[in-house]
Amino acid sequence: MTLLDRIADRTARIGVIGLGYVGIPLAQGILRAGLPVTGFDVLPERIAQLEQGISPLAHMSGDDIRAMTAAGFSATLDYARIAECDALLICVPTPLDEHREPDLSYVEATMDALAPHLRPGQMISLESTTWPGTTEERLRPVIEARGLTVGEDIFLVYSPEREDPGNATHSTVSIPKVVGGSTPACRAVGEALYGVFIEQVVVVSDTRTAEMVKLLENIHRAVNIGLVNEMKIAAERMGIDIFEVIEAAATKPFGFTPYWPGPGIGGHCIPVDPFYLTWKAREYGVHTRFIELAGEINAGMPDYVVGRLVEALNEQGRALRGAQVLCLGIAYKRNVGDVRESPAIEVMERLRDWGAEIRYSDPHVPIFPPMRRHRFDLSSVALTPATLEAADAVVLLTDHSGFDYGMIERHAPLLLDTRGKFRDAEREVWRG
User: Fold this and answer.
1) 3-state SS of the chain?
2) End-to-end CA distance of the chain
3) Active site residue: 85, 91, 269, 327, which one?
4) Distance of CA 281 to the CA centre of its chain
5) pLDDT tens by residue, the chain, 432 residues
6) Quick one: which of 185, 202, 198, 197 has its CA closest to 3?
7) Residue 217 CA to chain centroid, in angstroms?
8) CATH homologous superfamily for 229-431?
9) Residues near 376 by Cβ (< 8 Å), separated by ≥ 6?
10) Strands 415-417 and 357-361: what pairing?
C-alpha cells in the first residue's frame, strides 16, 4: 500500500515535531479528520503537561487536550518512534541569533534526530518560517545522506504555518494552506495529505516558492505597519489623530487596507521573518532597502514611546528617573500570553535603563517568563484603582479586552496611550 493509499483510507500516522503554538493546533486538526497523530518534543515538561491533559496554550483548554488524547494522540520524547510515522510535519522555532541573522539550529537539530529513523514511504514537511532554499539546501542533503531518493523513497514538502493564536474567526483548518514540493511527486503527496484536514490547499510550483510566499505575507505586514508608525509620529506632531485618519481612509472600497500603529511590532513572525529574506538576498547581491527601512522604523518605536513619556512627565515637573511606571499589557498582541519579540518588553527595558521603577499588569502573563534577551523579576499586579493611583504614570502597551478602560481613565494620574483606546476620553491623555 502506498503513502497516498494510506492517506486516502485514513490509516497514515502523522508525526508532529514541535508541540507549541503551531504543532498542537495542527495535531488537533489532523485528529479531527480521523488520522492518528504522534507528537514529538524535546521538552520533558511539555510532554508531561500534555499527558496530564494540561494545555500549554492560552487559547486551548485542557478539555481540548484530553479530547485529542481520546482521538488517538500521544506525545513522546522518543524519536525512535519516528519510524512508526508515515508523514512528519516539522514545526520548530526559527528565531534570529544575537546578530539578527537566521538561526536554523532547531531545524538542523530536528533533522539530525529524525535521520536515523527515516524509512522509504515517508513524507517530510517543514512548516517553520525560513529563507527560500532552506528545504532543498538543509533538509534534502540530510535525507539523501541516508541513501533515500527524494521524490521516490521520501516525499519532501514545504508548507508554511499560518497560525494566528487567539483568532476566533480563523482556525488551522480554515486558513488556506500553501504547499510546495521538491518534485511533482512530492507536491502531489503534500497536497493529498493537507487536503484531508485543511479546507483549501494552495499548490505552488516548488519549495522555494512556498518559502517565499510566507516571507512576503509577513514582510507585507511589517512594511505597512512601519508606514503607519511613521505616519503616527508625523500626525502627532501636527495635532492629527492618526486613528481617525486610518478609519476614514478605510472607507475607500478599493486600493486601501488599514494597518494600525502601536509601540512597535512583536510576535513569532513579523519582527523576525523579514530578516530571513534580507539575509538570503545578500547572497544574490540584492540589498532589500525598503524592508530594512521598515524594520528600522518599527524597531525605533519603543524609543518613541519612552520619549513621549519623558515629555509627559516633564509637563508635570517630574523626571523619568525614580518615577513609578505601570505598564499595561506586555504580550505582543491583545488577548494572548505570548511575549516573544514584544515591543512592550523593549519599552520596559528602556524605562528601566532610564531609572524608572517598573511594574506591569497583564492578565495573560501572570509571571514574567524566562527569555533569552530580557530579564525581569516581576509578576503581574492586579489592576485596581489603588495600583493605578500608586503609579506616577500608566502606559497602555497592549490593549487586552479584559482591561477596565473606564477605571484606567478615572484613576491613572498620567496616562500614555500607544493603542488609541482613549481617543474619546474626557481627560487629558498622552498619545505614544
Assistant:
1) CCHHHHHHCCCCCEEEECCCCCHHHHHHHHHHCCCCEEEECCCHHHHHHHHCCCCCCCCCCHHHHHHHHHCCEEEECCHHHHHHCCEEEECCCCCECCCCCECCHHHHHHHHHHHHHCCCCEEEEECCCCCCCHHHHHHHHHHHCCCCCECCCEEEEECCCCCCCCCCCCCCCCCCEEEEECCHHHHHHHHHHHHHHCCCEEECCCHHHHHHHHHHHHHHHHHHHHHHHHHHHHHHHCCCCHHHHHHHHCCCCCCCCCCCCCCCCCCCCCCCHHHHHHHHHHHCCCCCHHHHHHHHHHHHHHHHHHHHHHHHHHHCCCCCCCCEEEEECCCCCCCCCCCCCCHHHHHHHHHHHCCCEEEEECCCCCECCCCCCCCCCCECCCCCHHHHHCCCEEEECCCCCCCCHHHHHHHCCCEEECCCCCCCCCCCCEEC
2) 62
3) 269
4) 23
5) 899 999 999 999 999 999 998 999 999 999 999 999 999 999 999 999 999 999 988 788 899 999 999 999 999 999 999 999 999 999 999 988 877 789 999 999 999 999 999 999 999 999 999 999 999 999 999 999 999 999 999 999 999 999 887 777 888 899 999 999 999 999 999 999 999 999 999 999 999 999 999 999 999 999 999 999 999 999 999 999 999 999 999 999 999 999 999 999 987 778 888 888 999 999 999 999 999 999 999 999 999 999 999 999 999 999 999 999 999 999 999 998 889 889 999 999 999 999 999 999 999 999 998 877 788 999 999 999 999 999 999 999 999 999 999 999 999 999 999 999 999 888 899 998
6) 185
7) 13
8) NAD(P)-binding Rossmann-like Domain (3.40.50.720)
9) 345, 348, 352, 358, 368
10) unpaired
Q: Is 91 a catalytic residue?
A: no
Q: Residue ranges per domain, the chain? A: 3-205, 229-431
CATH of domain 3-205: 3.40.50.720
- The partner residues of 156 in beta bridges, in order of sequence, read 124
